[in-house]
Specification:
The protein has 11 helices and 19 strands. The protein is of the alpha/beta class and 349 residues long.
């Protein structure tokens, strides 16, 4: 039996690397040599606290994280015609049933039977090789890198958020949270042709990155009154579209106050607090539209095309890169470095 290396969390805050079987490609599947894996906020929560919302890791067993990955096809199974050995691919991490009402409506992100990498009990992709359905392995153009391929997953969340909000040309947009998803929402809103973009966060490095990626105004919520600053910037009109991407009860509560009359609030971040006080008087008085985001759907081909065309430059999000042997350091940094880490990726090979 051929072996490969895989990285697993053992309990919380500890990562180990061990040998596991190397897969072969069954019918309809490919084997992908993984080159890059991103560290998502959900990975960080599982690693540090063992849970995200209703999903909990069984800490009595080793558990593999990672769901944002790009790599190269090294083996093709029977019946696969759209991919060949040597193709660079990005893997969409959610495998859906294809039979339920949501899948048949095209809203497959709502499939109740989805198998999603690194969502317990499903293992993730922090390993050297993975066997995967070819229909969920999306070919990258030759000039794209597998690092960009790994970033297609978080970009898809941002693109879905912009689609949900129906961002239009000239819209004024407020984004609360400048982590990876906030930044991909920023890039997506800009690609939709929005006008003014205002980004708020508590970390200066994240705000600097938002400015670098095209934000017109950045606000540190520890230093200024965000509501008052947005009022000044917009001349009292406030924003056409408000995105909450931090998952913070504080910023979720701010959203209806930041939206203009008739505006749209889109909730993207997942809060660790399931019940939050919300000012529905603001919602009713302004006749706001409230949207929410759960992952994404039908986005990967368009996300790849957007990056390939240069319409979205996603690789600028990455601030830290670690090799596979230092995956413990990578996760420690992701947990503890609140000063200058925005997005970390693992270079597997």
């Amino acid at each position: 039996m051929e072996l490969q290396r895989g990285a697993f969390m053992r309990g919380t805050d500890k990562m180990i690397i061990k040998d596991i079987p190397k897969p072969t490609a069954g019918p309809g599947n490919v084997v992908v040599s993984i080159e890059y894996v991103g560290i998502c906020g959900s990975d960080v929560h599982y690693f540090h606290s063992g849970r995200v919302g209703a999903y909990e890791v069984d800490l009595s067993q080793d558990y593999m994280l990672g769901h944002e990955c790009g790599g190269v096809v090294v083996e093709v199974g029977e019946g696969v015609t759209d991919l060949k050995v040597g193709d660079k691919v990005a893997l969409e991490p959610g495998l859906t049933c294809g039979e339920c009402e949501f899948c048949k409506e095209g809203k497959y992100n709502l499939c109740p039977d989805v198998i999603f990498l690194a969502t317990p009990p499903v293992q993730g992709c922090n390993m050297e090789f993975i066997e995967y359905p070819a229909s969920y392995a999306f070919k990258l153009p030759e000039h794209l890198t597998t690092k960009e391929g790994a970033l297609i997953e978080p970009l898809s969340v941002g693109m879905h958020a912009a689609n949900q909000a129906e961002v239009g040309v000239g819209d004024t947009v407020v984004i609360l949270g400048a982590g990876c998803i906030g930044l991909t929402t920023l890039l997506s809103a800009k690609a939709h042709g929005c006008g003014t973009v205002i980004v708020s966060d508590l970390v200066d490095a994240r705000l600097a990155k938002a400015k670098e990626l095209g934000a017109d105004y950045v606000l540190n919520g520890k230093e200024v009154d965000v509501l008052e600053e947005v009022r000044k910037i917009t001349g009292g009109r406030f924003a056409d579209k408000v995105f909450e991407t931090a998952g913070s009860p504080v910023t979720i509560k701010q959203t209806p106050f930041l939206a203009k009359r008739g505006g749209t609030v889109t909730l993207v971040g997942i809060s660790t607090k399931p019940e939050i006080d919300y000012n529905f008087a603001q919602v009713m008085d302004k006749e706001l539209t409230i949207k929410s985001v759960f992952r994404y759907r039908n986005i990967y081909p368009r996300a790849i095309a957007a990056v390939a065309s240069g319409a979205i430059k996603v690789d600028g999000i990455v601030t830290h890169e670690f090799d596979f042997d230092h995956i413990q350091d990578a996760y420690d940094e992701a947990v503890n470095n609140k000063t200058d880490l925005v997005k970390a990726v693992i270079k597997v090979k």
